[in-house]
Amino acid sequence: MERSLSLITIFLVLALSGRCSCDVNLFSRNDFPEGFAFGSATSAYQWEGAVSEDGKKPSIWDTFLHPRNLENGDIACDGYHKYKEDVQLMVETGLDAFRFSISWSRLIPDGRGLVNPKGLQFYNNFIQELVSHGIEPHVTLYHYDHPQYIEDDYGGWINRRIIEDFTAYADVCFREFGSRVKFWTTINEANVFTIGGYNDGTTPPGRCSSPGRNCSSGNSSTEPYIVGHNLLLAHASVSRLYKQKYKERQRGSVGFSLFTIGFTPSTSSKDDINAILRAKDFFLGWMLEPLIFGDYPDEMKRTVGSRLPVFSEGESEQVKGSSDFIGIIHYLAAYVTNIKFKPSLSGNPDFFSDMGYAVAPWAMESVLEYIKQSYGNPPVYILENGRPMKQDLQLQKKDTPRIEYLHAYIGAVLKSVRNGSNTRGYFVWSFMDLYELLRGYEFSFGLYSVNFSDPHLKRSPKASAHWYSAFLKGNTTFLASQGITKLQSDFFSSAS
Ligand SMILES: *[C@@H]1O[C@H](CO)[C@@H](O)[C@H](O)[C@H]1NC(C)=O
Ligand SMILES: *[C@@H]1O[C@H](CO)[C@@H](O)[C@H](O)[C@H]1NC(C)=O
Ligand SMILES: *[C@@H]1O[C@H](CO)[C@@H](O)[C@H](O)[C@H]1NC(C)=O
Ligand SMILES: *[C@@H]1O[C@H](CO)[C@@H](O)[C@H](O)[C@H]1NC(C)=O
Ligand SMILES: *[C@@H]1O[C@H](CO)[C@@H](O)[C@H](O)[C@H]1NC(C)=O
After folding, report:
1. Can you tell me which atom of ligand 3 is nearest the CA of 369?
2. Is residue 481 lining ligand 5, measured as CB closer than 6 Å?
3. Predicted pLDDT of residue 487
């Protein structure tokens, strides 16, 4: 990874992009195809809290954060106890769908073997609460948080043994929840998880060997590729299990999710344009080519050589076509310049920093267009998109920049859909303020604020919650009263 990406440096976009061919002016949710799902999202570690309650054992997040004395998700939003209240807020907001993840170490505390009955009951209750209120659950099986036990036992994702354990865990989920859950994402942001956890060591399990990093073990030259490979094989194994054992009866679908960046070259030089192709191959093609075509991109094979695992013929067949949909996590646009001897973007711990969160809806369009054209237009769900702001309860109440961001990006999705993209759903990250992975509680993306100093963790709607709700309910009175119409035409005229 570091060798090839050392040739690429990417500058996150800091200013409003000037690129916009603005033929969508005003739009409403009725302009989206029938059945297009609008939702919002959280994940287990970031929302549930109840870190060691009712039989839950540590995940790699707990063991990574506790000794470092960092802010953590021990309590988070206490969704474990407050889920009914939160579903009520989802209903008031008018969400069609809700995306959340299951904590593997709550359901099967040692990663394999016995199911924890209290964990099972919690997810049964939560899913029932959603479904009985007409909210479609979109479940992620793995949002970075595997049980510490299997990390200690055999090294977690660097060992192929995890494929069997992950498949058995998925089997429990399909069996217990599959009558009510139709949308399953196996792995969250597989590319970013792999880079953070095994190349940079900045996220759990914190493995790396790059100079200047501080990991006690790992190998940045080989492990990112091994882990990426095992994630793909584990996904394919789960997908096959679903097809063989559940799909006919449950009629759901199983997808895989990736972090995407809208890349654009800094200049029109040939070097920069080639750098974009390489960035796309490394960032997306790494996982998408195997899922769609059954093998890694040629560019990657050439660059990484023998460090890149090889799919056997049988594995290639199993991985190819194993994703019923592609889940897209999208926040950022980036300018790419071909530079030698610079550290990679992907290694850059500022990757998630708020500075990249400019309104650059063209980036979303370019990602969707690229997936359409290069990968045969598979069904796509945008599983995360949103804008962070400093966590300040007063300031956050009127979070106009977030409204502007969401509005512009939903407009970009509409443009892509109108141009043939097979995108079928859009989820705002996040439904409420929560523990942001490694960023703690300083910045937040929520439509609802959470008062983390309040023992009751009171939730309150921000302006963006009212706005999203009005959009979903087609309340033009509200949109007009918030100056949204004006905001939109200002945005488009300044951008065009
Ligand atoms: C590196 O890690 C060790 C062990 O966790 C810790 O004691 C040390 O302070 C760290 N050094 C830096 C520069 O982060
Ligand atoms: C990483 O693994 C490769 C291949 O096994 C080996 O050549 C290299 O020395 C290892 N690097 C470290 C830092 O252990
Ligand atoms: C719209 O789709 C066509 C056909 O795939 C493509 O050639 C064109 O570039 C797309 N337009 C935009 C703005 O992406
Ligand atoms: C948050 O909760 C604390 C403790 O209950 C309270 O003192 C404070 O006023 C609350 N803040 C807001 C903005 O409601
Ligand atoms: C629509 O928004 C207006 C203005 O905020 C509000 O008074 C009204 O109750 C809303 N209507 C519905 C159906 O939610």
Report:
1. 14
2. yes
3. 52
Q: Is 397 in the pocket of ligand 4 (CB under 6 A)?
A: no
Q: Quick one: tokens of 262?
A: 């809208």
What average pLDDT does range 379-390 have in this prediction?
Answer: 94
Instruction: Read off the pTM.
Output: 0.90
Domain architecture of the chain: domains with CATH: 32-339+350-487 (3.20.20.80)
The residue whose CA is least distant from atom 3 of ligand 4 is 454
- Residue 189 appears among annotated catalytic residues: yes
Mutate to test the pocket of ligand 5, among 466, 477, 481 (most ligand atoms within 8 A of CB): 477
pLDDT tens for each residue of 278-294? 888 888 999 999 999 99
Closest C-alpha to 370, from 427, 254, 289: 289
DSSP string of 86-154? HHHHHHHHT-SEEEEE--HHHHSTTSSS---HHHHHHHHHHHHHHHHTT-EEEEEEESS--BHHHHHHH
Nearest residue to 401 (alpha-carbon basis) of 359, 360, 363: 359
Ligand 5: which of 403, 478, 481, 484 to mutate, judged by most atoms within 8 Å of the beta carbon?
478
Q: How far is the CA of 349 from the centre of ligand 4 (A)?
A: 33
Q: Which ligand is nearest to the CA of 368?
A: 3
10 Å CB burial of residue 46 (0-12, 13-18, 19+) is: buried
What's the pLDDT at 491? 43
254 backbone dihedrals φ, ψ, rounded to 5°: -125, 125
Where are the alpha helices (H) located in 161-218, listed in sequence order?
161-177, 190-194
For 319-374, write each residue's pLDDT tens digit. Answer: 999 999 999 999 877 766 654 333 333 333 222 222 334 567 888 999 999 999 99
Contact by Cβ (8 Å): 323, 378: yes
Instruction: Give the bridge partners for 140, in sequence order.
Output: 101, 185
CB under 8 Å to 270, separation ≥6 — which residues?
A: none
Determine whether 85 is an active site residue: no
Ligand 2 atom 10: residue of nearest CA: 219
Kindly report the backbone phi and psi dihedral angles of residue 148, in degrees, each rounded to the nearest multiple of 5, phi listed first: -60, -30
Q: Which one is predicted more confidently, 401 or 231? A: 231
Q: Of residues 48, 136, 189, 369, which has the active-site annotation?
A: 189
Is any atom of ligand 4 closer than 6 Å to the C-beta of 453? yes
